[in-house]
Amino acid sequence: MSALARDPGLQPERTRLAWRRTTLAFTVAAVLAVRQVVRHGSVTAGDVVAFALSAVVWLGFLAVAHRRIRTMAVRRAPGAMPVGQAVAATACTLALAVFAVAIVW
């Protein structure tokens, strides 16, 4: 059986849905960071910087996720995720976790 005749089944759809769920979870984490800054009462410069950096990281992750979802929608077999996109998604996830700790701390 050749690679062109391969039937991927629902795998691409599951992967697209996983990216959407991950994006939703990332958005919830960013909204909770905003809530924490607003509820904290006394907003420090560190809180504002951590919030601003979290927003930038959130936008970066949305860009990576959108690019991957769009690639999967256009091509039948998109192949493995490029290393640069994988590194960017991982860096965004780790950075959001660090900024969230900075906001809560």
Helix count? 3
The sequence of SSEs as H and E is HHH
Oligomer state of the chains in this structure: single chain
* Strand count: 0
**Parts with pLDDT < 50 across at least 5 consecutive residues:** none
- Give the radius of gyration: 17 Å
Strand content: under 5%
Give the termini separation.
56 Å
Query: What's the helical proportion of residues?
Result: over 70%
What shape does the CA trace take?
elongated
**What is the arithmetic mean of pLDDT?**
79
Largest sheet: none
Q: Indicate the structural class.
A: mainly alpha
What are the main properties of this structure?
elongated; mainly alpha; 105 residues
Structural overview:
The chain is mainly α and 105 residues long. It is built from three helices and no strands. It has helices at 11-39, 45-74, 83-104. Helix 1 packs antiparallel against helix 2 (45-74) and helix 1 runs parallel beside helix 3 (83-104). The chain starts with 10 loop residues before the first helix and ends with a helix.
In short:
The chain is 77% helix and 0% strand. It is elongated and about 60 Å long.
Any chance you could write out the topology, listing elements then pairs?
Blueprint: H1 11-39, H2 45-74, H3 83-104
